[in-house]
User: Fold this.
Amino acid sequence: MKHSKRLALGVGAIAAASALVLTGCSTGGSSNGSDTDSGGLTPVKLQLQWFAQAQFAGYYAALDQGYYEDEGLDVEILEGGADIVPQDVLAAGDADYAISWVPKVLGSIEQGANITNVAQIFERSATTQISFTDKNITEPADLAGKNVGSWGYGNEWELFAGMQKDGVGLDDINLVQQAFDMNGFLAGDIDAAQAMTYNEYAQVLETTNPATGELYQPDELNVINWNDVGTAMLQDAIWADAGKLDDEDYADTTVKFIKASIKGWVYAKDNPEEAAAIVTASGSTLGESHQLWMTNEVNKLIWPSTNGVGLIDEDAWVRTVAIALGTQNETGATIITTEPPETAYSNEYVQKALDELKEDGVDTSGDDFEPIEVALNEGGN
Amino acid sequence: MTTGSSWWRRIGFGLLGVALLAGVWELYTFLGPAEGVVVGGVTVLPRTTDLAMPHIWVMFERLFEPVTSAAGSPPMWSAVLQASAFTLGVAGVGWLVAVVVGMLLALLMQRFRSAEQAVLPWIILSQTVPLIAIAPLVRRWGSALEIGEFSWENWMSVALIASYLAFFPISIGALRGLESPDTNHVELLHSYAAGWWRTLLRLRLPASVPYLLPALRLAAASAVIGTVVAEVSIGLRGGLGRMVVEFAAAAGGDPGKPWAPIFGAVLVGLLAAGLVSLIGLTLRRFRRAEVPA
Assistant:
């Protein structure tokens, strides 16, 4: 009898403890809304799609240079990870804004994520398919019969659309899963590898060519650029919670956030070396020349800006949606099956931000932009 | 069994094993075909190029160079040690949570047969859920958690995921151990009018030690693996997992670099196993034949 009494006590204690934890959960969830703290600044969380790297230089520069603070925002940048889906984090309310690619988010929106593209930061696509010149792959039609690399997970659609445009079916190529590194390409297992201009392309140029003893040179590579093929899709954009945009405070914060972010990108345009150093100081372990290369290449995706940074170009949006609707992957699926809702993008907030910046005398088109020359070192160091 | 000379012998054999591995590695890169051995389109043995299998000395030299060429960049070995310490710490927390949860579950299942029938299938089922599916969920739930001054940090999500992997061998091993005493021993204590508690303390727990120790060691390994994978999964900064992914980008131009965090992971695994062995030393009184988990 005695032990059963003790046991009942123990079970009761466990039940009490778990109840305590559970109440802690429920109260914790509702405590941090849009209330202000830390000296009247509005706390804002930005979810990135990957680790800190110069792809996000503008946001880190805006944070470092105090542009967010000038707008009354206390911005916390949340880094991504292999399994972190920024639009899901945003839709779940764990971040106020997220950086993600349009095609990746279109699928999430169709699945029910209620989020809005409020600023299209990257005007151009950085995805390319690269190959050594001896493979003679200069256009999508040449991919037929080749080992074609792709990372998958939503990175494959521009490639598939480009092939579809040239009449190359997925049965005509051997699709190879590509890893984080370019070793498969360098070893010759992949004839044409997916490469971002700001990252993997540079990784190849940082590698010694065993035949020459020197680093690989750009003239040893053929690059299929999806911007030229006409199947480029919109990439890094700032996404906001569509349900909260009706709230005046959040809408106001959105304009301020976009404004300060654009200022950060202007800083990265004018000071690529400093911007690269800021990103490295923020915890990126990429090599110094690689980081600077990435900053410079990302600048090229933004500047010069046709309509002003962040303004969503109707034609580019329509093209992205059309590809998302009409391109099939290896299982026959498309990204989306119906047109996205009207809430999928809005130029309202970025237009306000651009107007305010113009008033402040900030150049938001960057017509005078000149990319710098970056010399890559071995291993990106 | 653990006299001074035998310790030296064990260390010597350990070092010999490492040297042997390095020798085999170098021998294969020297003798093996550059394009590897391919049988019927499937690569059976890897390529021996400097990219695929860098020389041991390249990897070691890299440890003594700075991480990046940026000013003030620490040498690689110190960055790796720091990341290893971080990962070991997180894995340790995960392991401790796993020990507590695993032991409680085992006690519950031992005490109530119906609990064993109800809980055991779930414990086994829990291990079939892929880690990459729960990692973002745990982070999301965690970030909503805030109790007074306490707020959930990302490293706690990683520790929790590590414990999720590690509690399994402990609960199973401990249950087997707790149920290992012979019926006549249990009945003897029963005849002494010893209750469940006393039977547990005097008989079941001591008897479970030979089962528990291998389970603890297995759990330590699981916790380390879980920590590294979860770090990659949710992008936690500071540990080895993140380092593995970030350094992979340099695999082409700087082949030694991606190996540095792998050495770190080996070190963490050895340390974790070593720490569990220390627990084994303190429980030596109860160790008879150890039973593999």
Observations:
- DSSP finds 14 helices and ten strands in chain A.
- The radius of gyration of chain A is 23 Å.
